[in-house]
Design goal:
This protein is of the alpha/beta class. Helix content is about 30%, strand content about 20%.
Amino acid sequence: MQRTDFVSYVLFAFMAMSFGAFANADSFDLTLRTRTTDEQDWLRIDYVDQKWNANESAVIICDMWDSHHCLNAVRRVKQLAPRIDAFVKEARRRGTTIIHAPSSCLEFYKDHPARKHVASIPRTKNPPKDIQNWCHWKNDSEENLGYPIDHTDGGEDDDLEEHERWAEQLTAMGRNPRSPWIRQVATIEIDNDDFITDDGIENWSILEHRGIKNVMLVGVHTNMCVLGRPFGLRQLANNGVNVVLVRDLTDTMYNPKMPPFVNHFSGTDLIIEHIEANVCPTVSSDQVLGGEPLRFRKDTRPHVVMLIGEQEYNTQASLPVFARDNLYKDFRVSYVLADKDDKNHFAAADSIADADLLFVSVRRRAPSNDAMALIRNHVDLGKPVVGIRTASHAFSLRGAECPSGHSEWTEFDAEVFGGNYVGHHGNKSGEDLSTMIWFDDNLSDAEELLEGVVFGEAKEIKTTSWLYKASPLKPGANVLMTGRVGDRKPHEPVTWTFINSAGGRSFYTSLGHEDDFKNDGFRKMLTNAVFWALK
């Protein structure tokens, strides 16, 4: 074990013991995350709190092998292993069943007490159908969707020359360079009272005999073994087990040179989103260990948090699609969405604390005091903000009573964007009252923000978005696009940049109608805005 890995191991183990001293030794308080798309194609992310009895729960460690044909996969396993070991130790301490499942490595463990322990479990008399088999899809719906990433090349993301040297090194060690694993990585301690198996019926027998209702699955690789093995997520979910993936204790076999051509870690995020929508919920390791979820050392993506809460322009449908298509290549993206039943409640708002950039599409909402404090702190720290359409009146209730425990920020538009929203002009289908916009490309920031932006051959184009009344802007606002309605004057600013009093970069556009998202130029401008705001 390298020194840095040893230090991480000691740190995680100490953290687990320290947190465990205060935790309920008999249960887990977990928040399960799932996602759906409703009839309006709106993204819905649900968080459900559950208390699991520890002695009715199990942790399955999937294929955390000691080696791999992909060198980068080996490196990521070394980073995962100390945190998984700490997670397993804490679960074991609370009375949870631990099952180690290093597929095709049972020969190495034939004399280990944890392997022999499996023989003491009565074999199930009524195993679920096909529990011995790989499960390629949970159901027809998942199969019709397919995977969000293309791993048909095997998913190796190594540098080719380095990969070749690694294969030579494995051969010199007497290992098969295509399947060099012989055991589970040694960092994860196996207790004599644990179990070691990669067999579907053996695994099911353990769960059945011990009365296991809940399973937390950790390990690699999510888009392959974690989903498909006989002890994997699909088989357990299909057979009535309350199973979750521990989303920060996993990895994916994905090569960014394959579609959708996103960052490797964004590829993992896409698979996790797929699982949450189609297979089972997820949790994060900090719910058991405390501290922060694990993040790979090479995952240096800036964090973009999309704060969405409006019902006029369907951005709860358009922005997630925009993010996947345009931001996942370079950024880590999280969503903080207004609750469908309580418009002022934004679930998972705590992720704003970790945001490098806040992307706002909110209309007349009053977040909780805690959520608003996070938004204000983000701005006060000089962190950038991108806003579209109704973000100019995001946190103003326009005279309506603010619920107890919630906060408005009526000057958000002026203080953050340098804006002055007071309403909108009319807009009809006739040419005389349709909204027209055009570039003002002679001002600062225009070159960077409008690079590659083509709305059409004409300098002036029509938009569905009604023209907002925003004049006059604060001094220092740089207008990039201007609009008019028919021949009415004055013309109004449509898109501009601003440096707020804390020094943070802000970008705002009053565009953002769902029709705007169909325009390549608009999407390109928003993408440029994120890069510009993050410098």
